[in-house]
Amino acid sequence: MNVTIKSSEDLEKMRIAGRLAADVLEMIEPFVKPGVSTGELDQRCHDYIVNVQKAIPAPLHYGAAPGRPGFPKSTCISINQVVCHGIPSEDKLLKTGDIVNIDVTVIKDGFHGDTSRMFLVGDVQPFNRRLVEVTQECLYLGIEQVKPGNRLSDIGRVIARHAHANHYSVVEEYCGHGIGRVFHEEPQVIHYEGYNEKNDCVLQPGMTFTIEPMINAGKKGTKLLGDGWTAVTRDRRPSAQWEHTIAVTADGYEVLTRRSDENF
Which 8-state DSSP code applies to residue 253? Predict the structure, then answer.
């Protein structure tokens, strides 16, 4: 496993990128309400990243290859049964009761900051609100495992056990990832129990990666839609996700995408 250890200079740039990504989620919060389109939300995020932050939205055109267009928008916005990588559209209007994930990745001075959070639209049913809360708890429990000497597998173990204790399932097809100058690099950060020697490692200072558990109300299975990006739950039951970019420090962790309402 080729894990990139970041220098102090690299980490300072990642702090800036992470702060910018968090700022986008704070900026967009007042606009997440019934009747707004996901396309409008995406455009607001795009304009803020490009015109105000003077940065680059990493998802835009990501993954382009011969015969395959890249991701067409600047953010991923996933509603209800959409697990991840939802494509914003002017035709997709939020309605009361929706749970929505907005996933933002900003590139600044060559480094990435990647984060997402859930939003509750209007009056949300208690069972969906609970799913959102438990998924956030899963993220925070995973973050608490980050310190030198612990293993990458410790993160997935605590996430899976908390999700299962609350009668939820953990998505296995998508995972967290190393991040820095490259959007997706080693290591892969899975959110379930099942690591082996090939995809596990001891955490050490200078490692940077995302933790981004996707927790389903029903079964763990997902299905990729015909657009080649949008992943949904196979049973069409709701899914939730929260994400932060984390750095391993000498004595623990630093949440590089911490929002102002969080205490780390």
Answer: E
Q: Give residue limits of the domains in the chain.
A: 8-255
Note the pLDDT tens digit of each residue in 25-37.
999 999 999 999 9
Q: In the sheet that 239-241 helps form, which strands lie side by side, from edge to edge?
A: 169-170, 214-216, 239-241
Instruction: Could you please state the CATH topology (level 3) that the domain comprising 8-255 is classified under.
Output: Creatine Amidinohydrolase (3.90.230)
Count of other CB atoms within 10 angstroms of residue 54: 9
Report which of 18, 49, 25, 160 is spatially closest to residue 100, judged by C-alpha positions: 25
Q: Looking at the predicted structure, is the pLDDT value of residue 195 above 90?
A: no
**Three-state secondary-structure class, residue 162:** helix
Question: What is the reported pTM?
Answer: 0.97
Distance CA 172, CA 214 (A): 8
Closest among 172, 214, 244 to 86, alpha carbons compared = 214
